[in-house]
Amino acid sequence: MDITSGSLQALYRGFKTAFQTGFAGVTPQWSKIATRVPSTTSQEDYGWLGDVAAMREWVGDRTINAIKMHAYAIKNKAWELTQGVDRHKIADDQYGIYNPLFQMMGDSAAKHPDELIFALLADGFGTPCYDGQYYFDSDHPVMQPDGKVASVSNMQSGSGNPWFLLDTTRPLKPLIYQQRQKPEFTALDKADQEHVFMRKEYLYGIECRDNAGYGFWQMGFGSKAALTAENFEAAQAAMGALKKDNGQPLGITPNLLVCGPTNQAAAKKLVEAQLIKGGESNINYKAVDLLVTPYLA
Fold it and tell me: Which of 9, 107, 189, 242 is the most exposed place for a label (fewest CB within 10 A)?
């Protein structure tokens, strides 16, 4: 290939097409448990996370619900993936060998939010959410109707690989995917650019800015106990019993069981088998949907 500005532009378009092909070939899982929130600055504040207000009978003046301000913010992080291509490979018409590599770059970029979201979910036993407690904790402070604060749990302790019961039916799902900048494919491929001149290497890269955080802890329940019918039903009951600060039921309805490959067989037996124990009806059959993700153990 004669290396000209036109041939380099054509090469860039080809690599970008390969990148987009790889990107489009991914079916992401993160959107099942997280809400995408667009970001316009270096960080977004979520101080409004707290009690969920409810409708009330209008008697007398309106009751104004003040927003509870919590010091909770999600800071965007910058991410990149860069690939070098030897100038001589292009001159010798060997650039075709790089197409699968750029498809893999697209695949990696598309899976990046999955990696963020499911890593954060797994870390919920040791990472604080808006109320200062770990997202999965036994001591979430909830105001009682008498004005006293009680500790409420959304977890089961244990030593096994974690599984999670989530309510993803609300406008704000249990986790937040905050996106400041979508993945962009760019190139450093001009002869007068220092890297190209000094190292005879063109650079092609992707960059994005985003991060993940927690929404309402009430929408999630985490367990490291064995994934049994007894523990599953206890988690369902705990979520269904959650109340607002004024004592009204929150109406939490868990609809998704999330686990990794090690818990897959137990999860399928729990919610996808119609019969158990040699013919007994399974009362948990289709009680929730199942999401098995490779990003959890």
Answer: 9
